[in-house]
Amino acid sequence: MPAVYTANIKSTDPEVAPMTLRRIFDSIITRLLILVVCLVCIGSLARYYALGHFLRQDLSTVMQEQQLALASYVARDIDDKISQRQTLLTHLASDLPQQLLQRPEQLRQWLRQQYQYQSLFSGGLFVADLHGRAIADYPVAPGRAERSYIERDYIRAALQGNSYIGRPVIGQALGIPVLPMAAPVFNRDMQVVGVLAGITPLTSGGFLDLLQKAQIGHDSGGFVLVSPRDNLFVASSQKGMSLKKLPASGINPLHDRAMAGYRGSGITTNADGQEEVAAIVSVPSSGWFVVARLPSSEAFATVGHVQTFAIRGAIVATVLFALLASACMYYVLRPLFHAAADAERMTRGELPLVPLAIRRNDEVGHFIAAFNRLLRKLHEQQAQLERIAHHDTLTGLPNRLLLADRMKLALAQSRRHGKHVALLFMDLDGFKHINDSQGHDAGDEALRMVTSRLLAVLRETDTLARIGGDEFVLLLCDLDEQAREVARIVAEKCLAAMQPPLRIGTEEFQLGISIGLTLATADSTPDSLLQEADQAMYLAKHAGGNCLMRN
Question: What is the mean pLDDT of the segment spanning 281-295?
């Protein structure tokens, strides 16, 4: 193909024919083709040896994130169920009639009524006196009544006035692995007069099912629930590990780090000497942590398959690439060949000496156009980053940084022109209930609705900023001598704007707003002004909320 531009050269030229083969080897196409084939071969060899490492590294990151997501899901499920049991037990302890502590039979009937209306403590409820002796239980378990539980950690902790999740053990009365927890029973003087304990079998339905029945992969992958405080495995998806002691230090490096407080993911070697991908996530309510495990042999099984496929594909690709590259390069460089042939004919006098035609779209023009497009995108991204840096992403309001700049400007202008500046620090009342009951999405929607209401009562020259979770700051500038009265009127408008309930989904929520008001003085700084308004807001909070307090 490189000989095309010599096709029109007369064979009678004694210097042309012998140079044909040399020109083929000296051709830019031949050199590029040899270079490309060499690069492809070198790249294929390098890829074969390096693909395993890089693929394993990338796959390791993906698998660790996957394990971390699975462990987080299981940990949240366990944490919710334990928190439900703690809350229920504390509530029952506060409702327990104290006079029944001296009447075991009536106390058992009371326990029976509570047991019928809850399913969390399927192992039963029992009450212990100040000596740790069980005085009543339900359902009645043989040998539980009159037995002393003073040696149990959860009984001792409850007698000291603390709700406590006990060490998972084989229950004395039930004879199966159970999780005990206890809550103190206080009298009116907040003195402990007894202990209410609840028992949950570790195998009870709806408790640890998600962990015990789940399996990751096809081999020995799964979940493990660990109690570092008690130095034992609480439960596991692998049979035979429940209530077993943890391995000694030095056997499993990632486990040792988890015992020291590390939470995350990594690749480690387990007690059986097998390499595995593991992730550790805390269960906050109990101090436990969940471990999601997957053997490396399963996690990285595709690495070997990909390496074999890659080397086979590289051989085929090299051949096809060489053919395709030859055709493409000839097509791309064909105008250059024609130009070179015309120039050579001109040197031999076969064509007149005229300018060569330019038959191409200038690459410089393309480059400049591409550069201009890139520059335009960079400006757009810079503007977007500037907005993100100075505005709250949820509500679109100025953030603390932009508020500080505008406060500095407002204070400087007020001193220059003799105007007044007022600052309103606002904190929502009842917002935590929306977050806790409906979730963060509903909380975010509530914040956007509050923002819309507040903006509707403000002037265009005022600045409304969000500086915290449910904290807003309103900056009023260019006020005259009636600044305090104007600020009071604006604050009352804000209070009135929050009177209608917020409708989120199918429910309505009543939010209030506590407002702290302060006026700038000659010595005011943005920090001092913000602190004064904050203090006034806290006075409004302590006054019952949904009101205005002036500093």
Answer: 92
* Residue range(s) defining the domain that contains residue 451: 400-550
CB 257 within 8 A of CB 281: no
Q: Is residue 9 domain-resident? A: no
Rg (C-alpha) for the chain, rounded Å, is 38
| Residue 355 CB burial class (10 angstroms; 0-12, 13-18, ≥19) | exposed
- Percent of all residues in the chain with a pLDDT value above 70, rounded to a whole number: 87
Nearest to 476 by CA among 468, 464, 485: 464
Q: Report d(CA 270, CA 251) in Å as an integer.
A: 7
Q: Which pLDDT does position 424 carry in this prediction?
A: 94
With beta carbons less than 8 A apart as the criterion, state whether 134 and 171 touch: no
Whole-model pTM?
Answer: 0.50
b/e code 541-550 from CB counts within 10 Å (16+ = b): beeebbbbbb
Peptide bond into 228 cis (omega under 30): no
Nearest to 318 by CA among 33, 1, 26: 33
Q: What angle do CA 126, 132, 135 make, to 5 degrees?
A: 45
Quote the number of domains for the chain. 3
- What distance separates the 2 farthest-apart alpha carbons in the chain? 129
523 is catalytic: no
Q: What is the rounded CA–CA span in Å between residue 145 and residue 126?
A: 8
The span from the CA of 328 to the CA of 316, in Å, is 18
Per-residue pLDDT of 302-361, as tens digits, reads: 777 777 777 777 788 778 877 887 777 777 666 656 666 766 776 687 866 555 555 656
Q: Which of 470, 478, 480, 523 is catalytic?
A: 470
- Measured over the CA atoms of residue 256, residue 259, residue 264 and residue 265, the dihedral's sign is positive
Sheet holding 548-550, edge to edge: 463-466, 471-479, 420-429, 512-519, 548-550
The Cα–Cα gap between 46 and 260 comes to 41
Q: Return the pLDDT at 210.
A: 84
Quick one: 428 and 489 in the same domain?
A: yes
Question: Binning pLDDT at 50, 70 and 90, where does residue 371 land?
Answer: very low
| CA separation, residue 146 to residues 109, 128, 169 (Å) | 17, 9, 20
Decide which of 299, 321, 343 is a domain's last residue.
Answer: 321
Q: Which two tokens stand for residue 220?
A: 């020995």
